[in-house]
Amino acid sequence: MEKDSVNYKKSIIGSAIAFVIATSCCWLPALVIGIGGGSALVGLSNGLEQWSGLFITLGVGLLGFGLYQYKKTKDASVVQEAILQSTITCPNCGHKKEETMPTNACQYFYECENCKTILKPRGNDCCVYCSFGTVACPPIQLDESCC
């Protein structure tokens, strides 16, 4: 989700830059005159005026695209829900038990009720559900950072 968030922000920033460039024929001469600038910058501003239609169209397009991506990102986050049931399988004895995963914390330790082995996450896994469960923990399912 973070990637989508960056895309719509880039589109909105790009549209804002396009609008600033498109309207430079109006504000740039006033700014140059206000700070005592020369006629060369006023000429540059007049040269940009011929392209203002293109910049305005580009700005409106990028703004629309950014808003579309923003709405799409918000809709996707509302629809996506985590599965809370996971079956943990003990690697020592093979015992399986369905458990409800917590949504507010990671579970680092789990005791097998059959052989009493204490399970801990393997490798880079954040919790026992990611290592030994049939379903990864809720933050991983939702592409969020784990505990």
Task: Set out the fold topology.
Elements: H1 2-22, H2 24-34, H3 39-49, H4 52-79, E1 85-89, E2 96-100, E3 110-111, E4 118-119, H5 128-132, H6 138-141
Antiparallel strand pairs: 1-2, 3-4
Overall description:
This protein has helices spanning 2-22, 24-34, 39-49, 52-79, 128-132, 138-141; strands at residues 85-89, 96-100, 110-111, 118-119. By secondary structure, the protein is mainly α. It has two domains: 2-79; 85-141, no CATH class. The strands form two sheets. It has a two-stranded antiparallel sheet. The protein has a two-stranded antiparallel sheet with strand order 3-4. β1 (85-89) and β2 form a beta hairpin. It is rod-shaped, with a radius of gyration of 28 Å. The two termini are 17 Å apart.
* Largest sheet, strands/sense/barrel: 2 strands, antiparallel
Order of helices and strands: HHHHEEEEHH
User: How many strand units?
Assistant: 4
User: Helix count, per DSSP?
Assistant: 6
Structural class call reads: mainly alpha
Strand order of the largest sheet: 1-2
User: What is the C-alpha radius of gyration, as a whole number of Å?
Assistant: 28 Å
Mean pLDDT: 80
- Tell me the fraction of residues in β-strands, as a range: 5-15%
Unreliable spans: none
Number of domains: 2
Fraction of residues in helix:
40-55%
Q: What distance separates the N and C termini?
A: 17 Å
Q: Give the overall silhouette.
A: rod-shaped
